[in-house]
Amino acid sequence: MSMFNIFNVSGSAVSAQSQRLNVVASNLANADTVAGPDGSAYKARHVVFTTTPMGEVGAAGVTVSNVTEDNAPGRRVHDPKHPQADAEGYVTFSNVNAVEEMVNMISASRSYQNNVEVMNTAKTLLMKTLQMGQNN
Amino acid sequence: MLNRLTDTLNFQAQALTLRSERQRLIASNIANADTPNYVARDFNFATALRDATGVASIGPSGTNMPRLAMKTGSPGHLGLGGKPAGSANPDMNYASASQTNLDSNSVDMDRERANFADNTVRYEATLRFINSSVRTLNTAITGQ
Q1: How far is CA B2 from the centre of its chain?
Q2: Scanning every residue of chain A, which has its alpha carbon at the shortest distance from the alpha carbon of B126?
Q3: Of A12, A33, A59, A118, which has the fewest Cβ atoms less than 10 A away?
Q4: Average pLDDT over residues A92-101
């Protein structure tokens, strides 16, 4: 019965999207982190989605194949009184772009909802299929 | 004689199988809405059902001429179109992107959600057809 595979497909998408949401959360939490003693601040992370076949022909799930670090230079603010300021008086913040992360968060949560709805519909259909020929 | 009774059921069962295949395919498209380079897939239900059952259904072109299927006596025989007879693996069509995007993903969420809802309703309709055929058969054999 090929409909059972919908739970695997949508389940993989839900877990991939929640991992994306997790990464967005840690990026936003570290949006104002300054460079530590080693001189490098927090780098924004991004998930990379890849299609993965799920058993039968035509069923394609999603996995997070990689979590990459953004190598853009961090935000530099001139603040000589800051304890982490460098010799020129600049403080290096993380390179997280808060606007980009908020957009990412909304997109991830919409995709999550879509997949949950797909699973609910598949469940309803399967329950009705199980009752086939009984209600007479 | 008995196969006359179950012919309708077989046809509807084949339709139900194809509907569930399509449901899974659309679920895959929705799951991969954010995957770069993913190409959305779908199949033509009417053609697939005609290929799988070898009988005529009234297609979109309005033809209801019976299509002559070759007789297949063994599972290895090929039906029309080169696929094994009664195969539930229909020919896939690939969607092209409806809007330009940078990640080469051709899933159009509006289209997929509409297709999903449409397929859900049709799946339930097929279930109802099966249930009412069963009810008809039950009435016939209990003789009331």
Answers
A1: 25
A2: A129
A3: A33
A4: 91
Please judge whether B32 and A56 are an interchain contact, meaning their C-beta atoms are less than 8 angstroms apart: no
CB A72 within 8 A of CB A95: yes
B99 residue type, one letter: Q
Bin A34: left if φ > 0, else alpha if -120 < ψ < 50, else beta: beta
Kindly list the residues of chain A whose beta carbon comes within 8 Å of any beta carbon in chain B. Answer: 1-3, 5-6, 9-10, 12-13, 17, 20, 48-51, 54, 56-62, 107-108, 111, 114-115, 118, 121-122, 125, 128-129, 132-133, 135-136
Q: Domain residue spans in chain B?
A: 2-142
SS3 state at A46: strand
* pLDDT tens, residue by residue, A5-63: 899 999 999 999 999 999 999 999 998 888 765 667 889 999 999 999 887 767 889 99
State the pLDDT at residue A36.
66
